[in-house]
Design a protein that fits this description.
Elements: H1 3-9, H2 19-35, H3 51-61, E1 64-65, E2 70-71, E3 75-77, E4 83-85, E5 90-91, E6 95-98, E7 103-105, E8 110-111, E9 116-118, E10 120-122, H4 126-131, E11 134-136, E12 139-141, E13 146-147, E14 152-153, E15 158-159, E16 164-165, E17 170-171, E18 179-182, E19 187-191
Parallel strand pairs: 1-4, 2-5, 3-6, 4-7, 5-8, 6-9, 7-12, 8-13, 9-14, 12-15, 13-16, 14-17, 16-18
Antiparallel strand pairs: 10-11, 18-19
Helix pairs in contact: 2-3
Length: about 200
Protein backbone atom coordinates (compact mmCIF):
# COMPACT_ATOMS: atom_id res chain seq x y z
CA UNK A 1 0.00 0.00 0.00
CA UNK A 2 1.03 3.60 -0.53
CA UNK A 3 1.99 5.92 2.31
CA UNK A 4 -1.18 8.04 2.12
CA UNK A 5 -3.43 4.98 2.12
CA UNK A 6 -1.55 3.54 5.11
CA UNK A 7 -1.92 6.86 6.98
CA UNK A 8 -5.61 7.05 6.06
CA UNK A 9 -6.40 3.56 7.33
CA UNK A 10 -4.39 4.19 10.52
CA UNK A 11 -6.47 7.27 11.38
CA UNK A 12 -3.57 9.66 10.79
CA UNK A 13 -3.53 12.90 8.77
CA UNK A 14 -3.15 12.20 5.05
CA UNK A 15 -3.60 13.87 1.66
CA UNK A 16 -6.43 12.28 -0.34
CA UNK A 17 -5.03 13.53 -3.67
CA UNK A 18 -2.99 10.37 -4.23
CA UNK A 19 -2.73 8.07 -7.29
CA UNK A 20 -3.46 4.88 -5.30
CA UNK A 21 -6.49 6.43 -3.63
CA UNK A 22 -7.53 7.78 -7.04
CA UNK A 23 -7.42 4.25 -8.47
CA UNK A 24 -9.55 3.02 -5.53
CA UNK A 25 -12.03 5.82 -6.26
CA UNK A 26 -12.26 4.83 -9.93
CA UNK A 27 -12.87 1.19 -8.95
CA UNK A 28 -15.59 2.25 -6.51
CA UNK A 29 -17.16 4.58 -9.05
CA UNK A 30 -17.48 1.82 -11.65
CA UNK A 31 -18.87 -0.72 -9.17
CA UNK A 32 -21.38 1.75 -7.66
CA UNK A 33 -22.53 2.73 -11.15
CA UNK A 34 -23.10 -0.94 -12.01
CA UNK A 35 -24.86 -1.58 -8.68
CA UNK A 36 -27.02 1.51 -8.98
CA UNK A 37 -28.07 0.71 -12.54
CA UNK A 38 -31.71 1.13 -13.44
CA UNK A 39 -34.13 -0.60 -11.10
CA UNK A 40 -34.49 -4.21 -12.16
CA UNK A 41 -38.03 -4.86 -13.40
CA UNK A 42 -37.67 -8.53 -14.29
CA UNK A 43 -36.61 -7.84 -17.87
CA UNK A 44 -32.83 -7.65 -18.10
CA UNK A 45 -33.09 -6.48 -21.72
CA UNK A 46 -34.68 -3.26 -20.43
CA UNK A 47 -31.47 -2.25 -18.67
CA UNK A 48 -31.87 -3.24 -15.03
CA UNK A 49 -29.35 -5.24 -13.03
CA UNK A 50 -30.81 -8.52 -11.71
CA UNK A 51 -30.64 -9.06 -7.92
CA UNK A 52 -28.10 -11.92 -8.14
CA UNK A 53 -25.76 -9.72 -10.20
CA UNK A 54 -26.26 -6.87 -7.73
CA UNK A 55 -25.18 -9.12 -4.84
CA UNK A 56 -22.08 -10.18 -6.80
CA UNK A 57 -21.21 -6.52 -7.41
CA UNK A 58 -21.79 -5.72 -3.73
CA UNK A 59 -19.49 -8.56 -2.67
CA UNK A 60 -16.77 -7.17 -4.95
CA UNK A 61 -17.32 -3.58 -3.80
CA UNK A 62 -17.39 -4.08 -0.03
CA UNK A 63 -14.79 -5.53 2.31
CA UNK A 64 -17.32 -8.09 3.53
CA UNK A 65 -21.05 -8.58 3.13
CA UNK A 66 -23.10 -11.06 5.14
CA UNK A 67 -25.90 -13.36 4.05
CA UNK A 68 -29.23 -11.77 3.25
CA UNK A 69 -27.89 -8.19 3.15
CA UNK A 70 -30.11 -5.85 1.12
CA UNK A 71 -29.06 -2.38 0.01
CA UNK A 72 -31.55 -0.42 -2.06
CA UNK A 73 -29.92 1.68 -4.75
CA UNK A 74 -28.75 4.31 -5.11
CA UNK A 75 -25.87 3.63 -2.74
CA UNK A 76 -22.62 5.59 -2.54
CA UNK A 77 -19.34 5.07 -0.70
CA UNK A 78 -15.78 6.42 -0.78
CA UNK A 79 -13.86 3.19 -1.42
CA UNK A 80 -16.00 0.23 -0.36
CA UNK A 81 -13.17 -2.03 0.80
CA UNK A 82 -13.33 -0.64 4.37
CA UNK A 83 -17.06 -1.46 4.80
CA UNK A 84 -18.18 -4.63 6.58
CA UNK A 85 -21.89 -5.49 6.85
CA UNK A 86 -23.33 -8.33 8.94
CA UNK A 87 -26.03 -10.85 8.03
CA UNK A 88 -29.61 -9.76 7.27
CA UNK A 89 -28.88 -6.04 7.44
CA UNK A 90 -31.14 -3.75 5.41
CA UNK A 91 -30.04 -0.38 3.99
CA UNK A 92 -32.69 1.84 2.39
CA UNK A 93 -32.39 4.28 -0.54
CA UNK A 94 -29.70 6.98 -0.83
CA UNK A 95 -27.25 5.71 1.78
CA UNK A 96 -23.85 7.44 1.82
CA UNK A 97 -21.04 5.54 3.58
CA UNK A 98 -17.75 7.48 3.48
CA UNK A 99 -15.27 4.76 4.39
CA UNK A 100 -11.86 6.44 4.54
CA UNK A 101 -11.68 4.52 7.85
CA UNK A 102 -13.44 1.23 8.60
CA UNK A 103 -17.23 1.19 8.79
CA UNK A 104 -18.43 -1.91 10.64
CA UNK A 105 -22.16 -2.67 10.63
CA UNK A 106 -23.47 -5.61 12.63
CA UNK A 107 -26.16 -8.17 11.86
CA UNK A 108 -29.89 -7.42 11.65
CA UNK A 109 -29.34 -3.65 11.40
CA UNK A 110 -32.08 -1.48 9.87
CA UNK A 111 -30.84 1.68 8.13
CA UNK A 112 -33.43 4.18 6.91
CA UNK A 113 -33.30 6.28 3.73
CA UNK A 114 -30.74 9.07 3.35
CA UNK A 115 -28.53 7.85 6.19
CA UNK A 116 -24.90 9.03 6.20
CA UNK A 117 -22.07 7.17 7.93
CA UNK A 118 -19.10 9.55 7.81
CA UNK A 119 -15.53 8.66 8.78
CA UNK A 120 -13.52 11.60 7.29
CA UNK A 121 -12.78 14.76 9.23
CA UNK A 122 -10.87 17.83 8.09
CA UNK A 123 -8.19 20.01 9.63
CA UNK A 124 -9.38 23.00 11.67
CA UNK A 125 -6.19 24.91 10.87
CA UNK A 126 -7.10 27.03 7.82
CA UNK A 127 -3.80 26.57 5.97
CA UNK A 128 -3.67 22.80 6.45
CA UNK A 129 -7.33 22.52 5.44
CA UNK A 130 -6.62 24.56 2.29
CA UNK A 131 -3.73 22.17 1.56
CA UNK A 132 -6.21 19.26 1.69
CA UNK A 133 -5.22 17.45 4.89
CA UNK A 134 -7.82 15.10 6.36
CA UNK A 135 -8.02 12.06 8.59
CA UNK A 136 -10.66 9.44 9.24
CA UNK A 137 -11.99 7.70 12.34
CA UNK A 138 -13.93 4.42 12.28
CA UNK A 139 -17.70 4.11 12.66
CA UNK A 140 -19.17 1.01 14.32
CA UNK A 141 -22.86 0.08 14.36
CA UNK A 142 -23.80 -2.82 16.68
CA UNK A 143 -26.17 -5.70 15.98
CA UNK A 144 -29.91 -4.99 15.73
CA UNK A 145 -29.51 -1.20 15.62
CA UNK A 146 -32.16 0.89 13.85
CA UNK A 147 -31.08 4.19 12.31
CA UNK A 148 -34.11 6.24 11.26
CA UNK A 149 -34.29 8.17 8.01
CA UNK A 150 -31.75 10.95 7.55
CA UNK A 151 -29.55 10.00 10.51
CA UNK A 152 -25.94 11.24 10.29
CA UNK A 153 -23.26 9.32 12.20
CA UNK A 154 -20.05 11.35 12.63
CA UNK A 155 -16.42 10.14 12.59
CA UNK A 156 -15.26 7.94 15.45
CA UNK A 157 -18.74 7.03 16.73
CA UNK A 158 -19.79 3.61 18.04
CA UNK A 159 -23.48 2.77 18.49
CA UNK A 160 -24.20 -0.13 20.84
CA UNK A 161 -26.37 -3.10 19.91
CA UNK A 162 -30.17 -2.85 20.06
CA UNK A 163 -30.08 0.96 20.05
CA UNK A 164 -32.57 3.06 18.06
CA UNK A 165 -31.63 6.48 16.67
CA UNK A 166 -34.58 8.70 15.70
CA UNK A 167 -35.01 10.15 12.22
CA UNK A 168 -32.93 13.22 11.45
CA UNK A 169 -30.59 12.79 14.42
CA UNK A 170 -26.91 13.68 14.26
CA UNK A 171 -24.78 11.27 16.30
CA UNK A 172 -21.60 13.05 17.42
CA UNK A 173 -20.65 10.77 20.35
CA UNK A 174 -20.84 7.07 21.21
CA UNK A 175 -24.24 5.69 22.19
CA UNK A 176 -24.58 2.75 24.60
CA UNK A 177 -26.46 -0.45 23.89
CA UNK A 178 -30.23 -0.65 24.27
CA UNK A 179 -31.27 3.00 24.23
CA UNK A 180 -33.41 5.40 22.22
CA UNK A 181 -31.50 8.51 21.14
CA UNK A 182 -32.83 11.52 19.24
CA UNK A 183 -31.86 15.06 18.29
CA UNK A 184 -28.95 17.16 17.09
CA UNK A 185 -26.70 16.27 18.73
CA UNK A 186 -28.32 12.92 19.52
CA UNK A 187 -29.04 12.39 23.20
CA UNK A 188 -30.30 9.31 25.02
CA UNK A 189 -33.94 9.82 26.01
CA UNK A 190 -34.64 6.40 27.51
CA UNK A 191 -33.54 2.79 27.84
CA UNK A 192 -35.22 0.15 25.69
CA UNK A 193 -36.51 -3.22 26.80
CA UNK A 194 -33.92 -5.91 26.02
CA UNK A 195 -35.02 -8.40 23.33
CA UNK A 196 -36.51 -11.68 24.54
CA UNK A 197 -34.01 -14.55 24.64
Amino acid sequence: MGENKDLMLAGEWYLPDDPELGADTERRSALCAAYNGHQYNGHHANGGTPPAERHTILAELLGSVGKGVRIRPPFQCDYGHAISIGDRTFVNFNAVFLDAAPITIGADVQIGPNVQLLTPTHELDTERRRAGWEKALPVTIGDNVWLGGGVIVCPGVTIGENTVVGAGSVVTRDLPAGVLAVGNPARVVRELTPPAE
